[in-house]
Design brief:
Belongs to the pyridoxal phosphate-binding protein YggS/PROSC family. This protein is α/β, with parallel strands linked by helices and 235 residues long. The protein has 9 helices and 8 strands. Helix 4 runs parallel beside helix 5. The chain binds pyridoxal-5'-phosphate.
């Protein structure tokens, strides 16, 4: 198999898994929002992004600023939607907002101003998801806002002129059944939707747990290795 065929096979397998999870969860009715696929291309070259675009992929995800910036520039001729899904440093927020179309990892108020400035410079609104931590309270904090901090963060995004609050993103913690973590996420989402009915995206689920995420209402899954193969451990 050449690389294009590998990617094509990976995409077909993941799309079939998504469809099976949708029907298994009774989410195949006409009013279901469906499940969008964001292909996570971190660690893989721009040539793979090009092949994916040719295979019909529109949404791609990256988690490191420098790599994402370079790849977005190399692929500027393609009609892609770039999702920034990685940790954000506040001094990089403006730069990320200049090339990202969706920032999924807003997890503290300090980032709002920089993202808003970058979106203003680019002259268009930036879609933002608030990243929620699903770690049990008191555990060593991974990325993401504590569920109780989500309402204030959502307000801060809504108040920024060039940002559009679109919903939530989360990563299931290690060492717990993903279904249990995603059930907590669904509750956080219910609360958010009560105040912000248009913030209805839910980005959850990766190669290992997309099935559970779809069952919990994910509108977007972020899938890397199941499509592109395993990433090098270090680079
Ligand atoms: C790398 C990454 C993914 C994709 O992970 P896979 O297990 O390769 O599918 C999804 N979400 C985030 C935030 C990531 O960093």
């Amino acid at each position: 198999m050449n690389r294009r065929e590998e990617l094509e096979a990976g995409l077909a397998a993941v799309r079939a898994r998504i469809e099976a999870a949708r029907s298994g969860a009774g989410r195949d009715g006409p009013h279901d929002p469906g499940v969008g696929l964001v292909v996570v291309t971190k660690f893989f070259p721009a040539s793979d992004v090009r092949l994916l675009a040719d295979l019909g992929v529109r949404d791609v995800g990256e988690n490191r600023h420098q790599e994402a910036e370079a790849k977005a520039a190399e692929c500027a001729d393609l009609d892609l939607v770039w999702h920034y899904i990685g940790a954000l440093q506040s001094n990089k927020a403006t730069a990320v907002a200049r090339y990202a179309d969706v920032v999924e990892s807003l997890d503290r108020p300090k980032l709002v101003r920089g993202l808003d400035r970058g979106a203003a410079e680019r002259g268009r609104p930036l879609d933002v998801l608030v990243q929620v931590s699903l770690d049990p309270p008191g555990s060593q904090h991974r990325a993401g806002a504590a569920p109780d901090d989500v309402p204030a963060l959502a307000e801060a995004v809504e108040a920024a002129e060039h940002l559009r609050l679109r919903g939530l993103m989360a990563v299931a913690p290690l060492g717990e059944e993903p279904a249990a973590a995603f059930a907590r996420l669904a509750a956080v989402r219910e609360r958010l939707l009560a105040d912000h009915p248009r913030a209805d995206r839910l980005s959850a689920g990766m190669s290992g747990d997309l099935d559970e995420a779809v069952a919990a209402g994910a509108t977007h899954v972020r899938v890397g290795s199941a499509i592109l193969g395993s990433r090098p451990a270090v680079r």
